[in-house]
Specification:
Order of helices and strands: HEHEEEEEEEEEEEEEEEEE
CATH architecture: Sandwich
Mean pLDDT: 88
Distance between the termini: 92 Å
Low-confidence stretches: 1-28
Strand order of the largest sheet: 7-13-12-9-10
Shape: globular
CATH class: Mainly Beta
Structural class: mainly beta
CATH topology: Immunoglobulin-like
Number of strands: 18
Number of helices: 2
């Protein structure tokens, strides 16, 4: 009989078609309820972080323990933990701490954030990265480095990087402000990552300015974090397609 053969052929073809069909593409959203920000009503928070009082004196770095570091650092290297230009504070991490509706979801960038080890320093010193977004760590020096993260909520990693041009890739799976990086070979090397579930963060420029764009209308707590001067918070309310400004003042007072 031909019926069983025809039936068997139909089942096989159906199975093959089902296996070969492409799955639906995913936008890879971060955790949330699938709600998306309406660009027509989204607003912006701008501002500046300034320093009050006499800025602390730059601290010299002693790199003579590694000839490659000493050769590549230039004369009189200084610690870049505190960078103040005309009153503006650089490398302050500013982000939306509270107020964002948890129903919002945001696509996670596939483009890595690059953290370079160059001149025996981490560059950038302070950066933001999304949960699940790759961090590409590069050894840009002709010497041994060791990249060592010190998170509280995420998984720690600690790896040597022996050769110039060597790369390693890492991701964090939980929000955390901030995650410290160090080099166990060169004690002065440090960097800090703000790991965020949303894209609403910024790092201040050399003049202390920042901008956080694309926020849905609402009332938010904005926090400014600095590795030496601690944190400051401000509350801001933005309406439809509105720009609001906030300012933060840091000092060396305890």
């Amino acid at each position: 009989m031909r019926f069983p053969a025809l039936f068997t052929s139909f089942v096989i073809l159906a199975f093959v078609a089902g296996c070969s069909s492409k799955p639906q593409s995913s936008s890879n959203p971060a955790a949330g309820g699938g709600k998306h920000v309406d660009a027509a009503t989204a607003g912006t928070v701008t501002g500046r972080v300034t320093f009050e009082g006499t800025p602390p004196a730059p601290e010299p770095l002693k790199m003579s323990s590694d000839p490659a570091c000493a050769a590549g650092s230039g004369p009189n290297p200084q610690n870049d933990a505190v960078l103040i230009h005309d009153g503006g504070v650089q490398n302050v991490f500013v982000y939306v701490k509270e107020g964002l509706d948890p129903a919002y979801s945001f696509d996670v960038p596939s483009t890595p954030v690059e953290l370079d080890q160059r001149g025996c320093r981490y560059s950038p010193r302070v950066f933001g990265v999304r949960v699940g977004q790759p961090i590409s760590v590069l050894n840009g020096d002709d010497t041994l480095h060791n990249v060592h993260s010190l998170p509280k909520n995420n998984r720690e990693f600690n790896n040597s990087m022996n050769m110039k041009g060597e790369r390693r890739s890492y991701t964090f799976d939980k929000p955390e402000v901030m995650v410290r990086f160090k080099c166990d070979v060169h004690s002065w090397m440090a960097a800090y990552a703000g790991v965020m579930a949303s894209p609403f963060f910024a790092v201040t420029k050399p003049d202390g300015s920042f901008e956080i764009a694309g926020l849905p209308p609402g009332t938010y707590t904005i926090e400014a974090w600095h590795e030496r001067f601690g944190t400051r918070t401000q509350q801001v309310t933005i309406g439809d397609h509105q720009t609001q400004s906030v300012s933060f003042t840091l000092s060396d007072k305890s």
